[in-house]
Amino acid sequence: MSDTAMLRVAGLTKTYSLGTSWLSRLTSRASGTLKALDGVDLHLCRGEILALVGESGSGKSTLAKILVGSTAPSGGEVRYRGEAAPARRDKESSRRVQMVFQDPYSSLNPRLTVGAMLAELLLLHRVVPRREVRAESIRLLNLVGMEADVLSAYPSQFSGGQRQRLAIARALAVRPDVLIADEPVSALDVSVQATILELFASLRAELGVSILFIAHNLAVVQHLADRVAVMYLGRIVEVATTAQLFAAPRHPYTRALIDSIPRMTEASVNDEFELDGEPPSPYDVPAGCRFHPRCPLASEICVANDPPLLPVGPAHESACLKAGELALIPLPDTPQEHR
Amino acid sequence: MTTAVATAARAMRRPARSRSLRPWYRNGTLVAGLVIVGLLLLAAVLAPLLTPFDPIEQDLQNALQSPSGSHWLGTDKYGRDVLTRLLYGARVDLRIGFLAVLIPFVVGSVLGALAGYFGGWFDVVVMRIVDVFFAFPFYVLVIVLVFVLGAGESSIYLAIAAVSWVSYAKIMRGELLVAKKQDYVVAARLGGMSHGRVLIRHITPNVLSQALIYAMSDIVMDIMAIVTLGYLGLGIAPPTAEWGSMILDGQEFITTQFLQATIPGLAVVVTSLGLSLLGDGLSDLLSPERRK
Amino acid sequence: MSQGSSDVISSTGIAPADEPASTAELSRGGVPLLSVQDLSIGVRLPGGRTVSIVEGVSFDVDPGQRMGIVGESGSGKSLTLRAVAGLLPKPVEVLSGRVEYGGTDLLTMPAKRRRALMGPEIAMIFQEPMSALNPVMRVGDQIAEGPRRHLGLSAKEAGELAVSMMARTGIPDPVRRARAYPHELSGGLRQRIMIAMAVSCGPRLLLCDEPTTALDVTVQLQVLRLLERLCADTGTSLVFVTHDLAVVNQTCSELAVMYAGNIVESGRVKEVFRQPRHPYTRGLLESAPDFDRPDRELVPIPGFPPNVADRPSGCPFAPRCGYVRDHCRQSMPPLAEVAPGRQAACFESSRLTEVLA
To answer: CB A99 to CB B17 under 8 A?
Structure first.
């Protein structure tokens, strides 16, 4: 079977070892290794918006760095359209996967005008001939909802939302197939977030670009994504279509995340899945199922076995030994209100 | 605390798109520095036009005169006009001061930038060398080097360059360590740009200001060093007019003709003041976070 | 009891549960616990000109009431809270108005007396506990510091109180954790430490500045539950500043919405969410994704908030408002009652009657 995915990772690991200097090895207190990624399998289809959710320390950002090639994985592979992506990206292979950052205040070079920023990329990659650079820059700006008059402006002249648009225009300038968006709206005001989310949806529709959307706000994810992957301590613990994941989560951690969302309407949260404690540190991943210390369903088999990600339904995978049991616990009533 | 401060600050500067940049000429510190340094440079360049006397030719008949209509600041023990020697001395001291900064600025900045950006063994080697140089006091090392190399202008350049590049290396390395983690630098790399291009076009303009500001105070240091060397007799050989040797010469008459040593000393102070103001003003002007 | 607060309502100390009596006693006189009146906050520029960031804000918090202040960055919500706590960052200062606590103006009271109120009467929780905790002091000692100073406890008693406070804020193994330094704890635990510190002297008013914004969602829920429980147990009033409407819904009963330094709408949270009467509130509600209504279209608010140094004349929201009429640009609409217990600062409020959900 030929690979239909734009981007696929298999068995991806990334470990950082601490105390690598000889001095700390001499004094060796905690010469631990940090498992940022511990066997990640995931694929991103053409024209799809896949959300990656998880708490801090889950490895979301490390995965993003590996996907764009700014960090090399410790093990496993990244395949781009079925071909193994080189560990060191050249100009062409880095072009295809671009990134939108969380903080729009540090992601734009303060000393380059918008025009210079776009022109440099367009010329470097020979996207268009030199005489069409200006027209192409304006096309890019229009694509993200901005006008030609900003070409000569510096980043400091823009608000957070506008900067994020410019950052997206920069990412699009080299005509990538994949956008990795790392929490692109969490630094923005609520009223601005909507416009950026709208922009991502329209870019997918108009350009057919695939988007990996990293987020912690599940309401945002639910609104935008086609599929959702849930990450916990360096591994994907559940993947499903958005509707399926939120209607029938098959991993207790997903369930806990959903139940933790602050609701706009009548609060209806099932106490059974309010988690105790906090995510353990990636320096010290629990044996067996990595979620078992916080899991309300955990039993001995969860301590003894590290469950792999297995299909539990059509396009639905979960890494939980109790996935069947979980399916029997109903979700709290969601308010059935009609407008 | 930070969020509220930031909010307040942002609230005060935000219309989303307007640039309320204070023009450089409204920056009092910068203007004062520019005026002082500018006048000094002008005086140095125009010295032959500003004074009818020769800085070297002796006139023992008129030695050690007090200030008068013809000799505004009096004459020294060889009867040379003090004002004339002060002006010609500025030529030497300012020239060496500015030139002596150039080599260490370039060498130190480049080495420090490369060490900070690439890290690894290169960083380790460069920084260990820097540590070794830092272990010696600046003046001691400069004096020893000039002594070994022999007095004279080229020795001074070499000695200062050999000692002061380490400061630029340290500054630039620190700046690079921060800058290379900035998202815009990562984005430039993801845009397929080479390390060289990222370093030169995207990082350097954002980090050079710190080194530049330091260079202003470094010129002060260098002038002090030249003056000190001159005072120790290791500087520019007499009879060339130079502030350090003027202080040395004037010192023996400190009780009778105190102006002899004080005037060149004041010149050093004024120069330092001008350059310091210039450095402060530049740092206001060049730091992006301050100019919003 | 410290002298400073003796003429304010006497502190309830640390006794938990059996509080409602004194709360009832307080509200009997009809005096709100906190009354902010016409508060303006800003910067005095050299040359006598002032730039106000918060303009004439008024609100009351009754004993036991939980009030949320919502707004976007730059709306002045945090500065308002800090003005109440007396923690305005330089050069920002209160330009005019009153901040009455139990009937006494905090702004005109001697600094020493005001400081004595901080802890036993008014306490504050910050967004980033790491910068609010002393990094070189054991957390148990930091919690004990307030009770020692304000309640006159001995070191031993205060230490025991600190441990029990930590247990009450849900910190596992509090005896051992009390000996930890802040950097040894996770973000969620640090936030609990700060909460324990804040409530250790039994304050009647708890000020929270985005206390859960930096936390993960599962931990956020735990902390919100904790705050809710603590306030319910002791009858403590809460002023909760956040940008997250859903968090307000989970935590507070009352709500004030701020925009460009003004309160533009206030009322009971459920009623405001159901039927916003100010176009900005409505815009906020329609632009934020709602987990329970995934198919609803998000409607962004066009444009940007005004620069406080250059406010438009009239209503500051007028340039972005879909309901705008000519008179909105002429004069600033006052915050007026639009329904029982509901206030809105909008001339066109009567046209906003649609029920959102």
So the answer is: no
SS3 state of residue C268: strand
pLDDT at B291 over 70: no
Confidence of residue A20 (pLDDT cuts 50, 70, 90): low
| Complete domains list, chain C, with CATH | 3-11+19-252 (3.40.50.300), 257-351 (no CATH)
Please spell the DSSP secondary structure of B121-168, one letter per residue: HHHHHHHHHHHHHHTS-HHHHHHHHHHHH-SSHHHHHHHHHHHHHHHH
A157-171, A303-317, A321-335, B153-167: least confidently modelled range: A321-335
Minimum distance, in Å, between the CA of residue C89 and any CA atom of chain B: 6
Is the preceding omega at residue C276 within 30 degrees of 0, hence cis?
Answer: no
Q: Are strands A316-318 and C34-44 parallel, antiparallel or unpaired?
A: unpaired
pLDDT tens, C212-266? 887 888 888 888 888 888 888 889 999 999 988 889 988 899 999 999 999 999 9
Interface test with B, best of A156, A174, A177 (most B CBs within 10 A): A156
Chain A residues lying within 8 Å of C246, measured CB to CB: 219, 261-264
Tell whether B4 lies on the interface with C, counting CB pairs under 8 A: yes
For an interface test with C, give the residue of A190, A223, A269, A274 to mutate (most C CBs within 10 A): A190
- Give me the interface pTM, i.e. the ipTM: 0.83
Collect all residues of chain B within an 8 Å Cβ-Cβ radius of residue C76: 7, 11
User: Mean per-residue pLDDT for A128-150?
Assistant: 93
Which of B8, B13, B15 has its CB closest to that of C79? Answer: B8
Q: Does A225 touch chain C (CB under 8 A)?
A: no
Q: Is some CB atom of chain C closer than 8 A to the CB atom of A217?
A: yes
Distance of CA C257 to the CA centre of its chain: 12
Give C334→chain A minimum CA distance, Å. 24
Which residue carries 């440079």 as its tokens? B41
Neighbours of C112 (CB within 10 A): 9
**HSE-up of residue A85 (Cα within 13 Å, Cβ side):** 31
Q: Which of C73, C216, C222 is the closest to A189 by Cβ?
A: C73
| C115-148 per-position pLDDT tens digit | 888 888 999 998 887 788 898 999 999 999 989 9
Furthest CA-CA distance within chain B: 76
Asked if C290 lies within 8 A of A264 by C-beta distance, the reply is: yes
Q: Do B16 and A156 touch (CB under 8 A)?
A: no
Say whether A110 and B202 touch across the interface (CB within 8 A): no
Query: What does the buried/exposed string (b/e) look like for A107-117 if buried means 16 or more CB atoms within 10 Å of the residue's CB?
Result: bbbbbbbbbeb
Q: Which residue of B has its CA nearest to C213?
A: B3
CB A236 within 8 A of CB A225: no
- On the CB side of C272, how many CA atoms lie within 13 Å of its CA? 33
Report whether A155 contacts A166 (CB < 8 A): yes
Pick the CATH number of B43-286 from 1.10.3720.10, 3.20.20.150, 3.20.20.140, 3.40.50.300: 1.10.3720.10
CB B103 within 8 A of CB B163: no
C101 vs C84: CA distance, rounded Å: 9
Mind telling me how many Å the CA of C115 is from chain A's nearest CA?
A: 34
H or E element in which residue B269 lies:
helix B259-286
d(CA C293, nearest CA chain A) in Å: 9
Give the side-chain half-sphere CA count within 13 A for A4. Answer: 5
pLDDT tens profile A283-338: 788 888 999 988 888 889 999 989 999 999 899 999 999 888 888 877 765 544 43
Contact B15 C89 (CB under 8 A): no
Domains (range + CATH), chain A: 5-225 (3.40.50.300), 247-334 (no CATH)
